[in-house]
Amino acid sequence: MNERILQQCEELMKKGSTSFYKAFNFLPSPRREAVHVIYAFCRIIDDSVDEPDSSPYSIHELKAHFRDLEEADGHFIWPALRWLFSSFPQLQREPFHLQMEGQIRDLSFTRYETMEQLKSYCYLVAGTVGEMLLPVLRDDQNEAARAAGISLGIGMQLVNIIRDVGEDLRRGRRYVPLEVMERQGYSQQELEAGEVNEPFIAVLQELRAEALHWFEKGLENVHTYPWESGMSIELAAAFYAAILDAVEADGYDVFHKRSYVSDEAKLKLFRRTVVRYTGITTVVV
């Protein structure tokens, strides 16, 4: 395997999510490189739908190339994926196919009515990532761990949905289920006007509670992973859950700003988790 190909995947992950990059940087090789490849492909899939003008492929081209992976060329992701599947033969291709199907749904299904519909979508675009990572982060195929990985992915996607309400609205999408809005007395008209009021805050708080429920399920058996993998999972979950606090600190105004976790807050989470796992108190970030 050309090391430069794996480095390009690493660079894409480092550029796309410094939080995830830091969270998984403690993994030993080749687990670490495998996470870089999975992240890079998922990033390219996501960009093919959300940023089509700057994406190297359309989502349909990605599907076709992935289906004929052994012959695919023209981009570093294809040899990287071939390395991934040869290095981790227990890794199945089905979650990757489902991930792409979930992104294709974004092209036509843009209004969610129920939490059940939203959960199905969250599984396709994020729960599948948990399934992809499972054979990379641990050596056994544990069904409880698989379910937990899916749960964590669903929780993370719910955080994305909370944070990106305004951004998604500008793209013509409403992931916030209508049944939640109606339950809290918040209308579609208020949503389109970007009104942050008590009913809207109640909507986001309900979604926040749902996300935290999935996080709790997702971390139930983290202790059964190799310690480096368990620490990486906890770090990723902590970084993501902290976005919810950032949204609250911003007054739930997800229409006009994108909430971020400060570097200082990330550093505290990072050190706290690393110390608990390793006992090392002087951590270089």
Description of the molecule:
The radius of gyration is 19 Å and the shape is globular. It has 14 helices and no strands. α3 runs parallel beside α6, α8 packs antiparallel against α12 and α10 packs across α12. The chain has one domain: Farnesyl Diphosphate Synthase (Orthogonal Bundle).
What tags apply to this protein structure?
285 residues; 14 helices; mainly alpha; Farnesyl Diphosphate Synthase
Going by helix content, strand content and strand pairing, the class is mainly alpha
Would you give the CATH topology?
Answer: Farnesyl Diphosphate Synthase
Bulk shape: globular
Helix content: 55-70%
**DSSP strand content:** under 5%
Order of helices and strands: HHHHHHHHHHHHHH
What's the alpha carbon Rg, rounded to whole Å?
19 Å
The tally of helices reads 14
CATH architecture: Orthogonal Bundle
